[in-house]
Specification:
With about 375 residues, the protein is of the alpha/beta class. It has two domains: about 5-40 and about 285-380, Aspartate Aminotransferase, domain 1 (Alpha-Beta Complex); about 40-280, Aspartate Aminotransferase, domain 2 (3-Layer(aba) Sandwich), CATH 3.40.640.10. The protein contains 13 helices and 13 strands. Helix 2 (about 15-25) runs parallel beside helix 12. The longest helix is centred in the last third of the chain and has 24 residues, at about 280-305. The protein is globular and about 55 Å long. The termini are far apart.
């Protein structure tokens, strides 16, 4: 009998997607998915429209248009303190997820072990599994999501190949400190490991937190693959424009696999993102942080008020909250109970752990319009 592949037989739909569907079914407010409902900046909108009207809708180079690669290189130098060659060390990808997938194909072999911090982003875990790598876990300790250097060292085996760092992190909002990234760097150097970073939330920082790119640390430029994108910063999650920055010898392979899977990122949207990078000054990013800091405060104060104690995030735009008070024995049951009672959708915490550590947690997203977030908070107060 004809069958699906073994990989296909093991797939499960993301709980984020499932809860988004359930929210739509009951007419709820979806705080499950990081859709980013806020307005797209004017220069980005303008250039997308103009590029389409100019007929710039064809394939680009597999590593992206020169204007965007130059703009990314300037941004990496200015904000991330990482020097890179726009011609040979940047690959524009189909979103940061496309960059992560292509990087994993480029540097990992089946059976390689990869250290992953949990709570983790599900796409990181499942991408590692799809390429045949074996994730091993450092569990961050709530409420401030700490770990120790020894937590890394005890996981090292002859099969260890890489460490994945997501900072600021989805779902915890953890911002890795310079000291913590130093532990990662020391471990990677001592055991000759890759470090693959997902920095998609790099501009979403609160309370004076600093974003540090692992590649900016001494000795880390050659072994770090920095992945990010523009979905969150410019509120264009559906446009799929991301990038990978790394040494030329890794970039060539990443570009090959990106081309094989996706050909290239959408041409007019690449030009639109370049316009955003070139035209938007520091004031834009400062206003972004202020807007999201206000939304964080609104949601976290509401969650605390109704007995769902939040771990207040240092970055990104998600909150993990203690759902012990909700009915149910699993986080999925608690999420469904919350949706039924209030019409607010959240993601079950079990989605972010490899064991049962997340069964009393729910994840809420505050990347919403002000009116939608206020409505969600009004509904949550029914508890």
């Amino acid at each position: 009998m004809i069958k699906l592949s073994e990989k296909a037989g093991r797939i499960q739909q993301s709980e984020i997607r499932i809860m988004s569907v359930e929210s739509e079914r009951v007419g709820g407010v979806n705080l499950a998915q990081g859709i980013c409902d806020t307005e797209v900046p004017e220069p980005v909108r303008r250039e997308a429209h103009a590029s389409i009207e100019r007929g710039q809708n064809q394939y680009t180079r597999l590593d992206g248009i020169g204007e965007l690669r130059q703009a990314i290189a300037a941004k990496m130098r200015r904000y991330n303190r990482v020097e890179c060659d726009a011609e040979s060390e940047i690959v524009v990808t189909v979103g940061s997820t496309g960059g992560f997938y292509s990087a994993c194909l480029a540097v990992l072999n089946p059976g390689d072990e990869v250290i992953l911090f949990e709570p983790f982003y599900g796409y990181h875990l499942h991408t590692l599994e799809i390429v045949g790598a074996k994730p091993v876990f450092v569990t961050l300790r709530a409420p401030d999501w700490r770990f120790a250097a020894s937590d890394l060292e005890r996981l090292i085996t002859p099969r260890t190949k890489a460490i994945v760092v997501n900072s600021p992190a989805n779902p915890s909002g953890k911002v890795f400190t310079r000291e913590e990234l130093g532990w990662v760097a020391e471990t990677a150097a001592r055991h000759d490991l890759f470090v693959i970073t997902d920095e998609i939330y790099e501009y979403f920082l609160y309370d004076g937190r600093e974003h540090v790119s692992a590649a900016s640390l001494p000795g880390m430029r050659e072994r770090t693959i920095t992945i990010s994108g523009f979905s969150k910063t410019f509120s264009i999650t559906g446009w799929r424009v991301g990038y990978a920055v790394c040494a030329e010898r890794w970039a060539y392979a990443i570009g090959y696999f990106s081309d094989l899977a996706y050909i290239c990122a959408p041409s007019p949207f690449q030009r639109a993102v370049a316009a955003g990078l070139n035209e938007l000054g520091p004031g834009f990013y400062q206003a972004l942080q202020a807007e999201y800091a206000h939304k964080r405060e609104l949601l976290c104060s509401t969650l605390a008020e109704v007995g769902l104690t939040p771990s207040v995030p240092d970055g990104a735009y998600y909150v993990l909250a203690d759902a012990t008070a909700l009915p149910g024995t699993t986080s999925k049951q608690k999420a469904m109970a919350l949706l039924a009672e209030t019409g607010v959708a959240a993601v079950p915490g079990a989605s972010f752990y490899h064991d049962d550590a997340g069964e009393n947690l729910l994840r809420f997203c505050f990347a919403k319009t002000g009116s939608d977030l206020e409505e969600a908070c009004r509904r949550l107060r029914r508890l």
